[in-house]
Amino acid sequence: MKQLLIKHILPWLAYLLLQVWCRTLRVTNLSPENEDYFNNLPGRYIMTHWHSRIFLLLFYFRGRKDWNILVSPSKDAEVLARLGVLLGYTVVRGSSYKNTLASARDLLKALKRDERVVVVADGSRGPRHVAQMGSVQLSRITGAPLIPMTFGASSRYELSSWDRFVLPLPFSKCTLNFAPPLTIPKKADDHLLAEKQQELDRALNRITEAVD
């Protein structure tokens, strides 16, 4: 019964709730030119965002089968993984905290097929709003540009979780924001990679502050 609940009932309930909830939101875009850039980009790219800003983004980009989203392999994330499939994404089970090599291989394969990848910049364990090296390394290896994204809400509730997960209240005004793409040279050394990691950090915090 528990497996039926987790694998079939809860994902559909979450899907229906997300559909109804997000359709009440009034969404505007603070940087449409940056969204146009990746929408018109024919090849691979890597979308990245803070863990706390998943809610609206998951709904907004629904139906993109060529977007591979990384979801933890833990049992706790099973509902989220199945929700991602219902929303039309390709789900890769892996973690930025554990089993890094296996999940990285799957993401690399997707990028080499000229598909797109979505990676949480601060990972599944944090620290909050501190970019980890995973997305930077993926960009260096594949040459895919990194595109930071976020959203803000005029009225919202923040959970008491480590990431202070943001839930926009129904009927609130939400604002999307995207930063210009970051590119990582394939021959980048450790010093340059660290600089690019900090650049990603600043870009995500800048666009998040702009919508908050």
Number of helices: 7
**Radius of gyration in whole Å, from Cα?**
17 Å
How many strands, what sense, and barrel or not for the largest sheet? 7 strands, mixed
Unreliable parts: none
Distance N terminus to C terminus? Answer: 42 Å
Protein model, in words:
This protein has a single domain, classed as Glycerol-3-phosphate (1)-acyltransferase (3-Layer(aba) Sandwich). It is globular, with a radius of gyration of 17 Å. The termini are far apart. With 212 residues, it is of the alpha/beta class. Helices cover 42% and strands 20% of the residues. It has a seven-stranded mixed sheet, with helices on both faces. The chain has a two-stranded antiparallel ribbon with strand order 7-8. α5 packs parallel to α6 (134-142). It has helices at residues 2-23, 32-39, 55-60, 78-86, 100-112, 134-142, 190-211, and strands at residues 26-29, 45-49, 67-71, 90-93, 116-120, 146-153, 156-158, 166-168, 173-178.
Attribute tags:
two-stranded antiparallel sheet, Glycerol-3-phosphate (1)-acyltransferase, 212 residues
Walk me through the topology.
Blueprint: H1 2-23, E1 26-29, H2 32-39, E2 45-49, H3 55-60, E3 67-71, H4 78-86, E4 90-93, H5 100-112, E5 116-120, H6 134-142, E6 146-153, E7 156-158, E8 166-168, E9 173-178, H7 190-211
Helix pairs in contact: 1-4, 5-6
Short description:
By secondary structure, the chain is α/β, with parallel strands linked by helices.
